[in-house]
Design goal:
single chain; alpha+beta; Arc Repressor Mutant, subunit A; 2 domains; three-stranded antiparallel sheet; binds zinc ion
């Protein structure tokens, strides 16, 4: 039985970055079979060789910060390597169907009015009826970050809360910038 566990260190450095935490740092890993797992990479490898999801290590849930936990999106919460690979294929299909052009059209359909991520999601859902909500939401989030970096859309509402180094936005509103209208 290869039940892999992941335990947060008792003390997390105060300057620990979110990226380091997301990369699996500040934790110890162990498997019920007794194999030594020195770090996240070793735990991932052991998960793969025992047919478990390489992200949640078969636990079906992931923790990105001490005290928090959510369902693993990489295997759809199944915890198996098969489910992770199937999920990867499905994400590829969503990426192909919801491309930058489709996203730009959805943004343009608001004709300069403000929109939320949910509203964009609804407009694009018809393109990939077989996609699950988290799959499409992941793709929409990816394209929103890309379009924001390119300066084509901007956030027009303020964050609702700031907790240490993570900023929380409560479904913020967005708007196309003038440079997107010129395209
Ligand atoms: Zn094991
Ligand atoms: Zn998983």
């Amino acid at each position: 039985m290869h039940a892999i566990s992941s335990t947060w260190d008792d003390v997390i450095p105060t300057d620990a970055s979110v990226l380091d935490m997301m990369a699996g740092g500040f934790r110890s890993y162990a498997c019920l079979c007794g194999q030594a797992l020195t770090d996240y990479a070793a735990a991932q490898l052991h998960a793969i060789e025992t047919a478990q999801c390489s992200v949640c290590l078969g636990r079906t849930r992931v923790s990105l910060a001490p005290g928090t936990e959510h369902g693993c999106g990489y295997c759809g919460g199944a915890g198996t390597r098969d489910a992770e690979l199937a999920e990867q294929l499905a994400r590829g299909a969503v990426e192909a169907a919801v491309d930058q052009h489709a996203f730009a059209q959805a943004v343009a359909s608001f004709q300069g009015r403000e929109f939320t991520k949910t509203e964009i999601h609804e407009r694009l859902a018809g393109l990939v009826p077989e996609a699950t909500t988290p799959q499409l939401a992941g793709r929409v989030g990816q394209l929103m970050r890309l379009f924001q970096r390119k300066g084509l859309i901007m956030q027009v509402s303020a964050p609702t809360g700031v907790d240490s180094n993570i900023v929380f936005y409560d479904n913020p509103r967005w708007q196309a910038t003038t440079s997107s209208a010129e395209q």
